[in-house]
Amino acid sequence: MKAAVWMGKKKMEVQEVADPRILNPRDCIVKVTATAICGSDVHLYNGLIPTLEKGDILGHEFMGEVVEVGPAVRKTKVGDRVVVPFTIACGACSHCTRTEWSCCDNTNPNAHIAEALMGYSPAGLFGFSHMSGGYAGGQAQYVRVPFADVGPIKIESDIPDEKVLFLSDIFPTGYMAAENCNIVPGRSVVAVWGCGPVGQFAIRSAFLLGAAKVIAIDSIPERRALAEKAGATAIPSGDDVMETLKAMTGGRGPDAAIDAVGMEAHGSTYDDVKQTLKMETDRPFALRQAMSCVRKAGTLSVPGVYAGFLDKVPFGAVMAKGVTIKTGQTHMQRYLHPLLALVEAKKIDPSCIITHRVPLSEAPEAYAMFNAKTDGCIKVVLDPSR
Ligand SMILES: NC(=O)c1ccc[n+]([C@@H]2O[C@H](COP(=O)([O-])OP(=O)(O)OC[C@H]3O[C@@H](n4cnc5c(N)ncnc54)[C@H](O)[C@@H]3O)[C@@H](O)[C@H]2O)c1
Ligand SMILES: [Zn+2]
Ligand SMILES: [Zn+2]
After folding, report:
1. How much is the pTM?
2. CA dist., res. 282 & res. 305, Å (int)
3. What CA–CA distance (Å, rounded) separates 306 from 152?
4. What's the CA angle centered on 375, arms 126 and 1, to 5 degrees?
5. 2-169+330-383 domain in CATH 3.90.180.10?
6. What is the pLDDT, as a whole number, of residue 206?
7. Ligand 1 in reach of 257 Cβ (< 6 A)
8. 185 burial type by CB count under 10 A (0-12 exposed, 13-18 middle, 19+ buried)
């Protein structure tokens, strides 16, 4: 089969690789019909996530048709049309039974690496380095899906792939980011750093949860325009964000701040230099700003991915202001059914963020474009049949 393979920093190739096989009785094999490139893939593409190896297949946003099931799979059937969440979960451990799916204890075969770095290992993730399990990703024609009865959600209607594909990651991620903001309907002002795909869904979800006002921050005009289309007030990123936010909130600051930027924020030469010299793992410019700008006793929600050890984080401000921080890889399985219902009820059309549809064979060019944010690119969907 064909797959998009990481061959080093900023180097993707589409290669002919071996088809996946059932390795565990609870696996299924999915023939991928649509897959996308995520902002998290950009961190991998840029070589910023440790333990990625040459030849690894990327991709954790995908859907398709089940073509084979292992002997212990009960619910999922051959022929089912499914969306697969990016967090791999067993469904039975103490975390899964608490619906803390992205913290599953049983799905990272390389848990010892993550434990050395973080104390405990989070769940395994598709296409996301060996520290996260070394699972082959879904930017491919076929993919092995472990715990086939726990993750995949069956799509019964003939709703197009593009409207449900983002249930695999960024819609639930934006939704959990907004849910983590303790929004008081009709009252809360939410500021969102980053108008990429995750920011776009965080903005839309904040409104679905009743936010009175959403302020969106990004340097890219077309991304700000898409945020405004959803009803947000968009402002450019930069050093004067604090002043602007104060002016927009009667001096109080936003009730909640969402960092939908993550470890590759723009705007700080200090971080650019230190990350390049490998003296710092992440560029937390947006995170610092969000910590400083959120109001006293407000909430900071961080869906943005961070890899390791962050410099000059104003934790004193967080402590003194009594800020609540919520973060994490999304507990995907919690959101699949409720958010599918919102899509089917036409409360939201997730396909509105797609700007590019390209064959899988053009994945290397698509990665370069999405990384550089050229050609108005906001979200790329890849077609594995071409
Ligand atoms: N928690 C999860 O489960 C989860 C899931 C998916 C993605 N993510 C993470 O969410 C983040 C965003 O993903 P995405 O797909 O939207 O990526 P993206 O790269 O397309 O979007 C990031 C946006 O942030 C903007 N930005 C950069 N610096 C900024 C600054 N200083 N101030 C304001 N905006 C700034 C960029 O211009 C860009 O539009 C990434 O870190 C990704 O890894 C997390
Ligand atoms: Zn992702
Ligand atoms: Zn589990």
Report:
1. 0.98
2. 9
3. 26
4. 35
5. yes
6. 98
7. no
8. exposed
